[in-house]
Specification:
Blueprint: E1 2-5, H1 14-19, H2 23-26, E2 27-30, H3 35-57, E3 62-68, H4 75-88, E4 93-99, H5 104-109, E5 117-122, E6 125-131, H6 138-150, H7 154-167
Length: 171
């Protein structure tokens, strides 16, 4: 069986990053010789994408998504800052933390070159992106979330358009 190694390690300490990996998300089978390994790799990919779809893309309101790595020294302080920011909005914002190694497809799709990266989704659509998020970005992020909360959602706009169409006189 041939294995295609797909790994992405962004770390200040490369020796730590090389010793810690998840074999199911790091090694993707190449070829049809071992169907079980291919099945496991496909299931992992589908499971991660399904979780992302249900927790982020299908959710109404605002979802803050953080891409991080377990070996990233800046990711834990950023996560603490993000949790404090989300807590300020009293349950109006959801928080999802994704491991970049296990979600390479999503990182390519949403153009996440470095961690920690923060993506803001509103009603399943990408609204804002902060790559290499730091504590100094906290006021900007807070203002962005407040602005997104103040904007009417796409569902509210559709309801108002339907209401104005129904109330218009016939010609």
């Amino acid at each position: 069986m041939f294995l295609l190694c797909v790994s992405l390690s962004i770390s200040a300490e490369p020796s730590r990053a090389q010793g810690n990996f998840d074999p199911l998300s790091t090694f993707v089978p190449f070829g049809n010789k071992d169907e079980r390994s291919e099945y496991l790799a496909r299931n992992l990919k589908n499971e991660q994408e399904l979780k992302f779809r249900t927790r982020v893309l299908c959710r109404r309101g605002i979802v803050l998504v953080e891409f991080s790595l377990p070996t990233c020294p800046a990711c834990d302080p950023a996560a603490k800052s993000l949790i404090q920011t989300v807590a300020r909005f009293g349950g109006k914002v959801d928080y999802v933390r994704l491991d970049l190694n296990k979600n390479l497809g999503l990182s390519y799709k949403y153009d996440v070159p470095e961690v920690p990266a923060v993506l803001l989704f509103k009603d399943g659509r990408l609204a804002e992106r902060y790559v290499t998020y730091k504590e100094t970005n906290k006021p900007e992020l807070t203002m962005s979330i407040a602005r997104l909360l103040a904007e009417p959602s796409s569902a509210d706009e559709e309801k108002s358009q339907v209401a104005t169409t129904v109330n218009q006189p016939l010609k």
